[in-house]
């Protein structure tokens, strides 16, 4: 018989909720998952600028989600961020997952370089979501296909990138006999 599990996602962004659900369902196809989002502070800047700050944002989000919604099977924090890499901005996200037994898994998603047209707006203080909307003349694209969707013409979108990261962050949950 299929088991069912509840996931609390530390964000109300539908892209993150979809990515979380897809990642869990791919990694554990025998389990039925339900996911809901809760608004949680990340405790870092709106636009994290280093990998460390981005990871801290994901960790803060997951802890805050657990405090807000203690009755769940899993909590997941996803935080998007950028870092300077050889004079160019690299975009990625950190994902942190906790389960009710205290197990933790984390992973950084695949990264890609932002075009200078977007980077210069982000460096001047604009959030990435707003910068890409301005360059691509879109509205709220961060809650739709995201930067990667706009730049690949939807070959891959933001939720698919997050789903892959969630699968990698779930490795310790699938390999409970190994040490992480
Ligand atoms: O409601 P929350 O969960 O905060 O969702 P968010 O889209 O603002 O996401 P983050 O705080 O994790 O991301 C930090 C910033 O990076 C932006 N960002 C990160 N990845 C992005 C992507 O693929 N597409 C669009 N914006 C992205 C996002 O808009 C924020 O300005």
Provide keyphrases for this structure:
single chain; 180 residues; alpha/beta; Maf protein; 7 helices; 25% strand; binds inosine 5'-triphosphate
Structural notes for this entry:
Residues 10-173 form the Non-canonical purine NTP phosphatase/PRRC1 domain. InterPro entries: ITPase-like_fam (IPR029001), Non_canon_purine_NTPase (IPR002786), NTPase/PRRC1 (IPR026533), YjjX_NTPase (IPR050299). It is an enzyme of class 3 (hydrolase). This is inosine/xanthosine triphosphatase. GO terms for molecular function: ITPase activity; metal ion binding; nucleotide binding. This protein is of the alpha/beta class and 180 residues long. It has one domain (3-110, 157-174): Maf protein (Alpha-Beta Complex), CATH 3.90.950. It has helices at residues 14-27, 51-68, 116-123, 128-136, 146-152, 158-169, 171-174, and strands at 3-9, 31-37, 74-85, 88-99, 104-108, 112-113. Strands 1, 2, 3, 4, 5 and 6 form a six-stranded mixed β-sheet that branches. Helix 1 links the parallel strand 1 and strand 2 (31-37). Helix 1 (14-27) packs across helix 6 (158-169). The chain is globular and about 45 Å long. The chain starts with a strand and ends in a 6-residue tail after the last helix. 41% of the residues are buried. The mean pLDDT is 96. It binds inosine 5'-triphosphate (ITT).
């Amino acid at each position: 018989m299929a088991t069912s599990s509840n996931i609390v996602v530390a964000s109300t962004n539908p892209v993150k909720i979809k990515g979380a659900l897809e990642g869990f369902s791919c990694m554990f196809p025998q389990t039925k998952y339900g996911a809901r989002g809760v608004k949680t502070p990340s405790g870092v800047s709106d636009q994290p600028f280093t990998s460390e700050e981005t990871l801290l944002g994901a960790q803060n989000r997951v802890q805050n989600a657990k405090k807000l919604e203690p009755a769940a099977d899993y909590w997941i924090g996803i935080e998007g961020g950028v870092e300077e890499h050889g004079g160019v901005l690299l975009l990625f996200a950190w994902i942190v997952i906790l389960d009710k037994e205290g197990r933790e898994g984390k992973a950084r998603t695949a990264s890609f370089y932002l075009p200078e047209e977007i980077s210069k707006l982000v460096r001047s203080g604009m959030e990435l979501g707003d910068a890409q909307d301005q360059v691509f003349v879109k509205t709220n694209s961060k809650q739709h296909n995201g930067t990667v969707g706009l730049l690949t013409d939807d070959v891959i979108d933001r939720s698919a990138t997050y789903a892959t990261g969630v699968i990698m962050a779930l490795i310790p949950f699938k390999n409970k006999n190994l040490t992480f």
